[in-house]
Write a structure and sequence with these properties.
Helices cover 40% and strands 14% of the residues. It has 73 residues and is of the alpha+beta class. It has one domain. It has a 3-stranded antiparallel beta sheet with strand order 1-2-3, covered by helices on one side. It is elongated and about 50 Å long.
Length: 73
């Protein structure tokens, strides 16, 4: 088993999962009438220590923390 190839595939899958989750969240905000909050989504994937990937909102007053997990077979 080539562990470098496995790790690279996991990175690819993880990145695609994060991109999907961000697009889903933007659509969710549109669906609940909060499209004005789309630009307020904070992408925290590159900043260690937060424990989640995106900071979004359920409403203008309520934060929503999104952690993306992906599993491959």
């Amino acid at each position: 088993m080539n562990f470098e190839d496995v790790e690279e595939q996991r990175k690819i899958i993880g990145k695609k999962a994060e991109e999907f989750a961000l697009a889903w969240e933007k659509q969710r905000l549109i669906g609940v009438g909060c499209e004005g909050l789309i630009d307020a989504i904070d992408d925290r994937r590159e900043r260690l220590g937060f424990g989640y990937d995106f900071l979004s909102y359920s409403s203008a007053e309520q934060q929503r923390f999104i952690e993306v997990k992906a599993v491959a077979r």
